[in-house]
Amino acid sequence: QVQLVESGGGLVQAGGSVRLSCAASGRAFGNYAVGWFRQSPGKEREFVAVVTWDGGNTYYADSVKGRFTISRDNAKNTGYLKMNNLIPEDTAVYYCAAGRWSYYYKVDNQYAYWGQGTQVTVSS
Questions:
Q1: Are 18 and 9 in contact (CB under 8 A)?
Q2: pLDDT tens digits for 1-23?
Q3: Average pLDDT for residues 68-82, to the nearest whole number?
Q4: Which of 12, 44, 68, 114 is a plausible cystine mate for 16, CB 3.0–4.6 Å?
């Protein structure tokens, strides 16, 4: 099994930047795509970004495209989400997830493993 732990969240001013990290256990991390999702109170969980197992391809939600960058370092068993030019609408709990690559990468049930989430709050 794979265990994922997010870190790096906190309070940030609008227009600022943060980088989230997703530390994974196990040697199979490099076999999985890594995705990021977020959820605000009273709202559905939404897809944010995904990177393929070798880091060769990335895909983003339209709402974050051009502002967020997803990456991974398989040697460190760690995924990252760099978030720039933050806006209050980005406020949410951010989750990293891992799973076999799927064409349906925007759907949360395509990911077998999930972290506990880290809160990001963007103040205006």
A1: yes
A2: 889 999 999 999 999 999 999 99
A3: 95
A4: 12
